[in-house]
Design a protein that fits this description.
The complex is a heterodimer of chains A (579) and B (579). Chain A has 579 residues and is of the alpha/beta class. Chain A has 21 helices and twelve strands. Chain A folds into four domains: 1-136 and 299-312, ABC transporter transmembrane region fold (Up-down Bundle); 153-266; 330-409 and 493-552, 3-Layer(aba) Sandwich (Rossmann fold), CATH 3.40.50.300; 413-489, P-loop containing nucleotide triphosphate hydrolases (Rossmann fold). In chain A, the strands form three sheets. Chain A has a six-stranded mixed sheet with strand order 6-9-10-3-11-12. A four-stranded antiparallel sheet of chain A has the order 2-1-4-5, with no helix packed on it. In chain A, strands 7-8 form a two-stranded antiparallel sheet. The longest helix of chain A has 50 residues, at 49-98. Helices cover 64% and strands 10% of the residues of chain B. A six-stranded mixed sheet of chain B has the order 6-9-10-3-11-12. A four-stranded antiparallel sheet of chain B has the order 2-1-4-5, with no helix packed on it. Classes of the chains: A alpha/beta (579), B alpha/beta (579). At the A-B interface, α1, α2, α4, α6 and α7 of A face α2, α3, α5, α6 and α7 of B.
């Protein structure tokens, strides 16, 4: 947690003023029992009414001062903590933006979202508590001890014995219960998982009539959860009574030995009352401290998780790259003996890949799942760096491009159709920020999306909800294709992006792309032979290497893998019809 | 309000099985409060015995301290056991609520489950129930002890000194009003914070959750800009919300200080006037310090109560949702020969949008029925009706001559084997998953089924083979492998009728071949309904049902339908349209 304190830098002053205010408040609070002692010893025993009024005024003033310093402290603490959270949040967002696909793969985007939200809020909360309470509680303990010392050196011994004992009780119980609460959380997670499974698997569960078994499974899980809750509760229930007992034993001793001292005249009645008061103050502070530590451990785990993300640095960057010029007469895309392996698997995902794609050509890429099709096209916009060989766009190695230039030239339609909250127009302007309506219309037309967009009363202003929830899978997919086409990219990559389309729409889409995108180099990744059969060039991937490249007719003759794929998908008649 | 009352009543009713423990807890609470309040009186009396030099009454002190010690023990024990009983009641009642809600969930008709979001149901069962425990049950306990404490303090104070008691009584509620005032005003700020925080979260979910798309379109800078704006807004509202909410403690502490000062001064004057003793003053000071606490707690409890009631309402809604009609008295479906008829079926999800109208079908034992049509045409509706996940609005489906509605759902569903494209596996071992439909199957049967479904070899390559724990979102299995496991699940029980959903593109060709082969094996001699994506399947079907936007548009064999030159012919031809 301390390691993230750098983000407090801009709020250094606030971060110092907040605990300072709290310290002042504590001092004022510690003076109160002494004033009360004076009222008793001097005011009452001397029957001095004006003195009592004076001291009453002093108590009032202490209250006002305490309030003032506490308000200042709260204000600065809120300011510093929220400032810290804000700085941290924007730094993390910026950092995540620099990460490349490999790091995102490794971390998982869900985790990143939790760290950006839940964890940062927890860390912010932690800083707030820390600034407000961390100095205050120990200070009151130490302060009360010192004040006790001024009252009676001998009786402070009782304090010195009991303070650590009470702290030990609190500490041991807190330590023991923390993991128990962790176990409860796990039990809750499991219970919640069972509910989730029963909803998503409801059809299967009922098809097999397993409802009563699932009910038994759920009951078992809630039973275990209850056992854990009761166990933790039993442990925690000891804390308050036990500390109460210790504090009051101390109070008894204070009264008894206080009595002894008062009898000999070395102490007054007011002294005894003051000491009892300090003992109570110490107990309250220690309990607060324990609560604080408990919530700080939570903030601590969150901070660790945030730091983990910061510790990961991008493995590919475009720093220092100047805009490049295309090499004349070079192919649009060229792979020269490219090898690629994801860092976590030892085996290469791609090996010895070489091919060229001329300007305006359509290249089909086909092969089974896990054969490296998506990986191959992901190397073109440099989402990953080839581990061996070279990937060239317009004759220049992709590593030499600044990202906006490289990725700006490419329109990519990923497998997962992702749309963002906003109007259709805003979504269409992702690739080209200033795309005009006519450009957008053209792209929608080609992507077979114009019809359903026009059907909406608001047309381009139609609001898309988060994740495109208000659209069907096929509609989402067509819009992502239109988005990639807006502003006519030089290279279009369709990564298995027709999977949610019915056959007729898929065919119309392919026809439109072939007609309206002349000059555009198009990559079509697909499992369906029908999607790529008419490509200028088909690359057949098998287990990470090229099993053949050429036209459909050529491959039917020369490539065994391709023939196998065709046979599995088309009837004999269809297979031969394409030749 | 009436609503709230009835919800609270019902919740209290859920304690009924634990009435004894609850009564014990309440009794102990009264004892605890009384003893806690008695302790300061004893301390005060003790202090009155320590007046000054040579004026300490040790003889009187000894029995006082003994009573004090007993009181401490009573406080500690009563608190400990009260907590234990309360925990027992709370966690048992929670478990009962969860079990009841889950029980009903597993009996709800599919329409009630499909129309809700999964997350919503989970949160009702998990976090809402937790909220009830925090807010209502513990709140209830706090409310109870709070009220007892207030009454007890009043009684004790009034019996000691009416005038000074009145000061405390009049002044203390001021802190309650201050606290209420602050929390009322901060509520608005908190709502504001919650709403902006929600915006930030959904923005992060979109951008960070889809980081790859952001990178593909070089959209990082825009994302940062948008995030910066939201983040600043969050900082503004958060600082305000956190600051204002943190005013409650200092403010109530200040009021407390005022009460303390007033009691101190007036008490001291009364002592001089001889109407009060120093010990009584010290006792009153303790009361003055403690008296605000229950007030603050009660005001906190009221806020939580409102939240808890809302949560309880949501949980009860789930418990009260009407379950499927009880069919336990219906006979089981016996001697299934595979014949199935549908007569004049009408069905719609929404009465305003008619869907299936006057649909009839006659399937002989062993026939293959292919269902085709574009995505979202209502093919799943057909399955829903066959499996009685939904009931037709009118018309009769008979299975082997028996009306489906007249037998138990479980026996009807068990006569079908269903493999959906959306695979579902439960968290558990591979073995448990395959044996899901036949939990008592022995390992050799399971292995035989796995072999028949071409799963055996990849299962053996898993780290623990058949004992490997998998779950639905497990990354260790590919989509195709998951589908094969689902097929193995059916292979084990092999019911007389099958419902199969052919995979589309997410599965590679080789696995696809294996799946088709497995399908073929299963279909031998069984009546099968196939949601077909492959025209080869369609052509070999005994009957083809062509669906479009929820309607059955055509029905017949391939040749019949081709001759019709209708929707089917169009669909069939589009497959061969050259793209």
């Amino acid at each position: 947690m301390l390691k993230l304190f750098g983000y407090l830098k801009k709020y250094r002053l606030e971060a110092v003023l907040a605990p300072l205010g709290k310290l002042l408040e504590a001092i004022f609070e510690l003076i109160v029992p002494i004033v009360m002692k004076r009222i008793i010893d001097t005011g009452i025993h001397g029957a001095d009414k004006p003195y009592i009024y004076k001291m009453g005024g002093l108590l009032l003033m202490l209250g006002v001062l305490g309030l003032a310093s506490s308000l200042t402290a709260q204000y600065f603490a809120a300011k510093a903590a929220v400032g810290f959270g804000t700085e941290l949040r924007s730094a993390l967002f910026r950092h995540i933006n620099t990460l490349s696909h490999s790091e995102i793969d490794r971390l998982g985007s869900t985790t990143l979202v939790t760290r950006m939200t839940v964890d940062i809020n927890a860390a912010q909360q932690g800083v707030n508590m820390l600034l407000r309470l961390f100095l205050r509680a120990p200070f009151i303990v130490v302060g009360a001890l010192i004040m006790a010392l001024t009252v009676s050196v001998k009786l402070t011994l009782i304090f010195l014995v009991f303070t650590p004992v009470i702290w030990a009780v609190i500490w041991v119980i807190t330590k023991r219960t923390v993991p128990m609460y962790g176990a409860i959380q796990k039990g809750l997670d499991r219970t919640s998982m069972i509910v989730g499974e029963n909803i998503s698997g409801v059809r299967v569960i009922r098809a097999f009539s397993r409802q009563s078994d699932e009910r038994a499974r759920f009951k078992q899980s809630t039973r275990r959860l209850q056992d854990r809750q009761l166990a933790a509760g039993r442990e925690a229930a000891v804390m308050s009574p036990l500390t109460y007992v210790f504090v009051n034993i101390a109070v008894m001793l204070l009264i008894w030995f206080g009595g002894v001292n008062v009898n000999t005249g070395s102490m007054t009645q007011g002294d005894v009352i003051a000491l009892v008061n300090y003992m109570t103050q110490i107990l309250l502070s220690l309990i607060r401290l324990a609560e604080l530590i408990q919530s700080l451990t939570k903030a601590q785990t969150s901070s660790e998780r945030i730091r983990e993300v910061f510790a990961i640095h991008t493995t590919l960057s475009d720093r220092g790259n100047k805009p490049v010029k295309a090499v004349k007469d070079s192919p649009a895309v060229e792979f020269r003996d490219v090898t690629f392996g994801y860092s976590d698997s030892e085996r290469s995902a791609l090996e010895g890949i070489s091919f060229t794609a001329g300007r305006g050509e359509t290249v089909g890429i086909i092969g089974g799942t896990g054969c490296g099709k998506s990986t191959l096209v992901n190397l073109i916009p440099r989402f990953y760096d080839a581990t061996g060989g070279e990937v060239l766009v317009n004759g220049v190695n992709v590593k030499k491009y600044p990202f906006p230039q490289l990725r700006g030239a490419i329109g990519i339609v990923p497998q997962k159709a992702v749309l963002f909250k906003g109007t259709v127009r805003e979504n269409m302007q992702w690739r080209k920020k200033d795309a005009s309506d006519s450009e957008i219309e053209r792209a929608l037309e080609t992507a077979q999306a114009a019809d359903f967009v026009h059907e909406k009363p608001e047309g381009l202003r139609h609001m898309i909800e988060q994740d495109g929830r208000n659209l069907s899978g096929g509609q989402r997919q067509r819009l992502t294709i239109a988005r990639a086409l807006t502003g006519d990219p030089e290279i279009l990559i369709l990564d298995d992006s027709a999977s949610a389309l019915d056959l007729a729409t898929d065919a119309a889409l392919r026809r439109a792309i072939a007609e309206k995108t002349c000059g555009m180099t198009v990559f079509i990744v697909s499992q369906r032979v029908s999607s790529i059969r008419n490509a200028d060039k088909i690359i057949v991937l098998d287990d990470g290497s090229i099993a053949g490249q050429g036209t459909h007719a050529e491959l039917m003759k020369s490539c065994r893998v391709y023939r196998e794929i065709c046979r599995s998908q088309l009837t004999e008649e269809e297979v031969s019809r394409g030749e | 309000m009436n609503d709230t009352k009835s919800i609270i009543k019902r919740l209290l009713g859920s304690f009924r099985p634990y009435n004894m423990q609850l009564a014990a807890a309440l009794l102990l609470a009264v004892l605890n409060v009384a003893a806690t309040l008695y302790a300061p009186i004893l301390t005060g009396q003790a202090i009155d015995l320590i007046v000054g030099k040579g004026k300490v009454d040790f003889k009187g002190l000894v029995p006082l301290l003994i009573v004090f010690a007993v009181t401490i023990v009573v406080v500690a024990l009563s608190q400990y056991f009260m907590t234990l009983f309360l925990n027992k009641v709370t966690f048992s009642a929670l478990r009962d609520l969860r079990d009841a809600a889950f029980d009903n969930l597993s009996r709800l008709p599919l329409s009630k489950i499909d129309s809700r979001q999964k997350g919503d149901i989970i949160s009702r069962l998990i976090s809402d129930v937790d909220q009830i425990s925090d807010g209502l049950i513990l709140g209830f306990a706090q409310l109870f002890t709070g009220i007892v404490t207030i009454i007890g303090t009043l009684v004790f104070m009034l019996t000691i000194n009416v005038k000074i008691a009145l000061i405390v009584v009049v002044l203390t509620p001021v802190s309650l009003f201050v606290a209420r005032y602050i929390s009322k005003n901060t509520f608005r700020f908190f709502q504001e914070q919650t709403s902006v925080r929600g915006d930030v979260t959904s923005f992060v979910e979109e951008m960070t959750g889809n980081q790859k798309t952001v990178k593909a379109f070089a959209h990082e800078d825009e994302a940062e800009e948008g995030f910066g704006r939201l983040n600043e807004e969050l900082q503004r509202v958060s600082t305000r919300a956190i600051f204002f909410s943190s005013l409650t403690n200092p403010a109530t502490r200040f009021v407390n200080g005022l009460v303390y000062a007033a009691v101190g001064v007036i008490g001291a004057l009364s002592v001089i006037a001889g109407r009060f003793s120093v010990g009584q003053l010290s006792c009153f000071l303790t009361y003055a310090n403690q008296y605000t606490k229950p007030f603050n707690e009660i005001s906190g409890v009221i806020t939580e109560l409102t939240g808890a009631v809302a949560c309880a309402k949501r949980v009860f809604e789930l418990i009260d949702e009407r379950a499927e009609t009880d069919d336990s008295r219906s006979p089981n479906l016996k001697r299934v020969n595979g014949a199935l008829t549908a007569e004049n079926i009408f069905f719609s999800y929404d009465p305003k949008v008619p869907l299936i109208e006057d649909f009839s079908l006659n399937v002989r034992s062993g026939q293959r029925i292919a269902i085709v049509g574009p995505t979202g045409c209502g093919k799943t509706t057909f399955i829903n009706l066959l499996m009685r996940f939904y009931e037709p609005d009118s018309g009769v489906i008979t299975v082997s001559g028996t009306p489906a509605a007249e037998v138990t759902r479980n026996s009807l569903r068990r006569s079908f084997g269903m493999v959906l494209q959306e695979t579902w596996l439960k968290t558990g071992t591979v073995r448990e998953n395959i044996a899901y439909g036949k939990p008592d199957a022995d390992i050799s049967e399971i292995e035989a089924a796995a072999k028949a479904a071409h799963c055996d070899s990849f299962i053996r390559r898993l780290p623990q083979g058949y004992e490997t724990v998998i779950s639905d979102d497990t990354g260790a299995l590919s989509a195709g492998q998951k589908q094969l496991l689902c097929i193995a699940r059916i292979m084990l029980s092999l019911p007389p009728m099958l419902i199969l959903d052919e995979a589309t593109s997410s599965i590679d060709t080789r696995t696809e071949l294996l799946i088709q082969e497995a399908f073929g094996k299963m279909m031998q001699g069984r009546t099968s309904f196939i949601i077909a994506h492959r025209l080869s399947t369609v052509r070999s079907a005994d009957c083809i049902i062509v669906m479009n936007s929820g309607h059955i548009v055509e029905q017949g064999t391939h040749d019949e339908l081709m001759a019709k030159q209708g929707a089917y012919a169009e669909l069939y031809n589009s497959q061969f349209a050259q793209g």
